[in-house]
Amino acid sequence: MKAFSVSEGSPGDFVARVQGEIKSRQFEEIASIRLEGDALIVAFSWMGTTLLTYRLQPQARGFSAVLERQKVSPFHVPFKAGFEERFDQIMAKVGARSVDS
Fold this sequence. Notes:
The protein is α+β, with helices and mostly antiparallel strands. The chain is built from 2 helices and 6 strands. It has helices at 11-24, 80-93, and strands at 3-6, 31-36, 39-45, 49-58, 63-71, 96-98. 21% of the residues are buried.
């Protein structure tokens, strides 16, 4: 997702929900998510590391996140669509909704 919004909870609550879903899908060896200040960092680590950095913005209810930077491992390029599809499914399950950026 290039941009998404979450209508309920704090970024910390959202990260905890995503981490739980990653673990339940046995995806934790490949994907991780963490907060760093007002940024949300998503990492895919397998034969290299891809980092997605989202800028967080508080909303009246919840928050929004816009992809600010991405560093894609050359080894991930052929698999990028598969990684993104699986992660987008996880994000949607825990309440993230894609928005036009």
